[in-house]
Design goal:
The chain has 143 residues and is an all-alpha fold. The chain has one domain. 75% of the residues lie in helices and 0% in strands. The protein contains five helices and no strands. It has helices spanning 2-22, 30-50, 58-76, 86-103, 115-142. It is globular, with a radius of gyration of 16 Å. The chain starts with a helix and ends with a helix.
């Protein structure tokens, strides 16, 4: 199941990226593909991070951060006001998902955190996602 989620997420993020890079409309509305990709990405994250406790290794943390960035992009781009940000959000997410098997370690090093520590870490990850998207949005607006 993990391999299926992995491939579906890659394909659903790749189509809007290729369409944005080539300036051709492969599909009229990319939002639907990104939403489905975000859902499969969430299931992929759940299988790797939250399935047996909380495993926030480097690979899993980058995977979670890429999901948060794509979610923020999707929420801000509901009315398609910000065209062109796909390059700055979906391509890094695609690279992170593509490189995830290479970054994932073979051994299980799951650390069990208390509930307040887990909430703190997840809120910090959301904050870093917002900070990353803010810097991307700021550089796009200045160009």
């Amino acid at each position: 199941m993990n391999e299926t989620l992995y491939l579906v997420t890659l394909i659903l993020y790749l189509i809007p990226c290729l369409s944005s890079l080539s300036n051709t409309k492969i599909i009229k509305n990319h939002s639907l593909l990104v939403v489905i990709g975000l859902i499969t990405h969430a299931f992929f994250i759940y299988n790797h991070i939250f399935n047996q406790g909380v495993d926030l290794s480097f690979a899993n943390s980058t995977l979670l951060l890429s999901w948060i960035i794509v979610l923020i992009f999707l929420l801000l781009n509901i009315k398609s006001k910000y065209q062109g940000l796909e390059i700055f959000t979906l391509i890094p997410a695609l690279i992170i998902v593509l490189g995830f098997p290479l970054m994932q370690t073979d051994h299980q090093s799951i650390q069990y955190y208390s509930f307040p520590a887990s909430v703190h870490i997840i809120i910090a990850m959301i904050g870093y996602g917002l900070l990353t998207f803010g810097s991307i949005f700021s550089s796009e607006r200045n160009s």
